[in-house]
Design a protein that fits this description.
Layout: H1 8-19, H2 22-25, H3 42-50, E1 55-61, H4 67-72, E2 76-82, H5 86-96, H6 108-111, H7 115-126, H8 128-153, H9 157-165, H10 170-210, H11 217-227, H12 230-259
Parallel strand pairs: 1-2
């Protein structure tokens, strides 16, 4: 299962799109193309169209189960919801139980500052080599942080209650339960961050090369482009791609070795 569907960002977008008001999804302060606001609330219209009268059973099958299942429950005696994401299912179950879930509406431009915009400043203040390391760290840190926090919050509540009954203190709960629970999420974030770190380093080298300084494979691509040295350009590109593949499979192997004896994602299934 792709870990992106278990992140807080995707969960917030799921809650907003399925349960937010039209003004929350498309703020009236902006001008939107005609028809976009009218296309909202499609689960309400769809359920009302196909469930006239009383229906014995309804099925909500898709990549974001939730609102359609609630709307179907108005006229169906039983509703079955099937979804790809554990986070989406947990949110739908919590809402069905009467709970409320806070979520944030994020503007795309407010999530990150483009690395290419701050790389020149980093080169000025820290120099070329340090900028490569800083750029790689910046783009790699947040996927690891986001996935780890999701893992810590996904700890089984039954086990948490058991630890409380056993009077475990905060450190014991963290080390013996929450960190092992978050480890698969951390390792998934690490695999994602490996490729992003390479991209960050390449961007920093591109900026340094455009400024007339630098070294490394990305700089060789820039230099080869100026000199129309196509073979060298392709050679550098292939080496960068090979480095990305090595990073991914290296982290994937480390993840498998760490989880192979106890986690469902790495255990061999008996036929």
């Amino acid at each position: 299962m792709s870990a992106i569907y278990e992140t807080d960002k995707l969960l917030a977008e799921y809650l907003l799109f399925h349960f937010g008001t039209a003004d929350e999804i498309l703020p009236p302060s902006r001008s939107w193309p005609e028809g976009m606001r009218g296309a909202l609330d499609f689960p309400v219209r769809t359920a009302a169209h196909f469930t006239e009268g009383t229906v014995s059973c309804g099925l909500d099958l898709g990549c974001a189960v939730g609102r359609s299942a609630f709307e179907l429950s108005r006229s169906c005696q039983e509703v079955i919801g099937i979804d790809f994401s554990h986070a989406f299912i947990a949110a739908a179950q919590a809402l069905a139980g009467g709970a409320s879930i806070p979520y944030e509406r994020l503007e795309e431009a407010s999530q990150v500052t483009p690395l290419v915009a701050i790389a020149p400043l980093l080169i000025i203040y820290f120099g070329e080599q340090a900028t490569v390391y800083i750029a790689a760290t910046i783009v790699a840190f947040f996927p690891i942080l986001s996935n780890t926090m999701t893992g810590l919050r996904s700890t089984d509540h039954g086990l948490l209650n058991l630890f409380q009954l056993c009077k475990a203190n905060g450190w014991q709960r963290l080390i013996r339960l929450e960190l092992p629970s978050a480890l698969p999420y951390f390792l998934t974030g690490l695999r994602i961050a490996g490729g992003l770190a390479l991209i960050g380093a390449i961007v920093a080298e591109f900026v340094a090369g455009s400024a007339g300084q630098g070294s490394g494979l990305a700089f060789r691509i820039v230099e080869s482009g100026y000199r129309l040295n196509i073979p060298r350009m392709f050679a550098a590109l292939l080496m960068i791609s090979f480095a990305g593949v090595i990073l991914y499979f290296g982290f994937a192997l480390a993840s498998h070795m760490a989880l192979r004896k106890w986690h469902e994602s790495a255990l061999k299934r008996e036929s």
